[in-house]
Amino acid sequence: CHRVGVKDEL
Amino acid sequence: MNIFRLAGDVCHLVAIIILLLKIWRSRSCAGISGKSQVLFAIVFTTRYLDLFTVFISPYNTIMKVVFLALSYATVYLIYMRFRNTFNSENDSFRLEFLLVPVIGLSFLENYAFTPLEILWTFSIFLESVAIMPQLFMITKTGEAESITTHYLFFLGLYRALYIANWVWRYHTEGFFDQIAVVSGVVQTIFYIDFFYLYVTKVLRGRGKMTLP
Asked: CA torsion sign, B122 to B123 to B128 to B134?
């Protein structure tokens, strides 16, 4: 469920 | 967003501000590894390139900009403004021992073989070892000022809270980012020995932390 290009964590 | 994530980010911010204030108020960066701070600036720079490609939330954007600005300000204070107080002989960790494996690994193990994904992976791997020059410096000199240990304590707390955040996200959202989690756990392990010393020496004693 990992979306490439979208990292919401810092 | 959950309470562990938020608390983790706040601890990260507190750690960076503690270090910056320590250098600014004492007009000295004695005992601080400039190399670790350069590595953290590289970590933020390579990770937050997505500021230009995706918008996630105002919180996300503001925090990224703040972390970038503070990390560059720290490097500036160490290498420019207060460079005469910088103890470069004790900051002798060989960066190529970290950079070469980290660069190699980020090319081998990533979510997509694109420049942004490789740089993001590089930043995750690099963050997990970026504190090593600082820990090496403390081991070499055998002591750390208590303010430096508070800095390390908040950095370690930030990492521990991120692990709690991942456990929470795994159970509530089914979220699991294997690259971030594996390197995050590795990174947290580096702080365990330090945590022990912090509690036994700094909190129960006073002043400097000296190694046995």
From this structure: positive
